[in-house]
Amino acid sequence: MKNKLLVNKIRQELIQTIRQAVEKEAGCIGTFYKNKGCRYYLSQEEEEYDDSPIVVAHIPNISAYGGFIAATVFDLYIDTESLLMCTLNGESGEDWDEPIAHVQVEGLACIVEWLQKNGFIQVQSDNPYRCASCGSTNVQLKAWVSANNNEYIESIGSDGDEGDNWCEGCGDHTELILESELLKEIDEWWEEDLGMYSKEKISGLWMFDYDMSGDCKEFLDDCNKKWNEFTKEEKIEKWANNKNQGK
Q1: What is the pTM of this model?
Q2: SS3 130
Q3: CA spacing 20 to 30 A to 124: which of 72, 92, 130, 183?
Q4: How far is it, in rounded angstroms, from Cα 121 to Cα 178?
Q5: What phi, psi does 218 have (nearest 5°)?
Q6: Which of 50, 58, 60, 95 lies closest to 77 in space, CA to CA?
Q7: Residue 125 Cα to chain centre, angstroms
Q8: Alpha-carbon gap, residue 20 to 119, rounded angstroms
Q9: 70 - beta bridge partners?
Q10: Given this model, what pLDDT does residue 59 score?
């Protein structure tokens, strides 16, 4: 029962990933011809992919082979009732449409891998998880893996569940956060939480070089300009070293 629940969860996550990619391309991605936004038979696109995904689908109304059939995926699309569908091409050359839910989980994984390879899905490593306390990417989490081949099955807990995460930089259990979310929080920290003395220290500028009467706009503008020139790694380092400073 536990394995079945895990498989069903993986299936739903894969289907959701495929749907999000299709939605970004106006509801249709060609996986045999390079059509986007409309079905392949309505498109004038003649250029083909050389690595179209091949999947196994379970079709309830087919009695042979237990209802399982292998086919090449030609299109991924969202129909008029918002159902995620795929156009399949069989061994004899016939095309037909099936709900993506009829594709076996291995085929769904194959489709997601194909979408990543061909640029329809951003690979997660472009937005890695970091430690929410120090910003390090040297982080770990508990997960289920196959006892026979070490294949990843599913993570345990959640990003915010400190007991299931570990940061080598902190040497402690910490929360995890996506890099994009951390950088957003760091920019808010810079804008809202720091006073002039802290910004002077972090930016390397000197208040004595400015007219500090009035609203100190020139000094603060230069501090912000200097902050925006820092790389993301520099911002994370300066935040980690100064995050406990007040105004």
Answers
A1: 0.51
A2: strand
A3: 72
A4: 17
A5: -65, -45
A6: 95
A7: 8
A8: 13
A9: 56
A10: 81
